[in-house]
Amino acid sequence: MSDANIDASFRIRACGPEDQPGAYEVCLKTGDSGADGTAMYRDDPLALGNIYVGPYIYFEPGLAFVLEDRGGVCGYVLGALDSERFYKRVIDEWLPPLQARHLEPTGDPRTWTPTQQLYYEYHHPRFYYPESFQSYPSHMHIDLEPRAQGQGHGRRMVQHLLAKLVELGSPGVHLCMSAINGRAYRFYRNLHFEELVRMDTDPPGVIYMGRRLT
User: Rounded to two decimals, what is the model's pTM?
Assistant: First the structure.
């Protein structure tokens, strides 16, 4: 779809702290491998956004963008220029307050709710950034609510972020996606991302994809 055919009522703009509620809502509405995760995280609708949105808004404001229409925020694209530095800040600065507010779950992990599983991640963060990713030091993720999908907005948002990363001198970017989200996989392949590694240790598994920028 050419830019000339894109609905002008949708616009990409910088994401600020005031956009946190709207961005968290987008995260929740796409939190079940791209589908609505509201029912999964009913006991704490903020739990997912606390991991996948909040740190980017506050630690990487120059790489945080939202998609907005007349109904408000309906998508975002978020990035980190230096993944290693970003993850260190998350561990040292972002997670301790969350750990204080949300106790680590106990008992059989098989009985934990999706929210409790996220609380466990607050206390035991797992950031996958192996040496083989050094050519792709930046990372990103994007989510769009259904009303913004299938119209070319996702492509525009990724291109907007990639241009910013190139401007900042990043040699490459990677991302992580659910292994069962076939639509997302095709989307990234069309944007010239290549599969870096596929991990099936935690069903349904995840795929890491990367794209060189230089």
Answer: 0.91
Residue bearing tokens 């907007």: 160
- Average pLDDT on 191-206 reads 89
Contact 56, 80 (CB under 8 A): yes
Q: Which residues of 169-207 are buried (b: 16+ CB within 10 A; e: fewer)?
A: ebebbbbbbebebeebbebbeeeebeebeeeeeeeeebb
- The token duo for 27 is 């995260």
Write out the two tokens for 141: 């993720």
Mean pLDDT (the chain, rounded): 94
Contacts 24+ apart (CB under 8 A), 85-90: 86/55, 86/59, 86/60, 86/139, 87/125, 87/127, 87/129, 89/55, 89/59, 90/55, 90/59, 90/125, 90/127
Tokens encoding 106: 């106990």
Q: How far is CA 114 from CA 15, 110, 160, in A?
A: 27, 10, 32
Is the pLDDT confidence value at 104 over 90?
yes
Look up residue 3 and give its DSSP letter: G
What is the pLDDT, as a whole number, of residue 7?
66
| pLDDT value of position 48 | 97
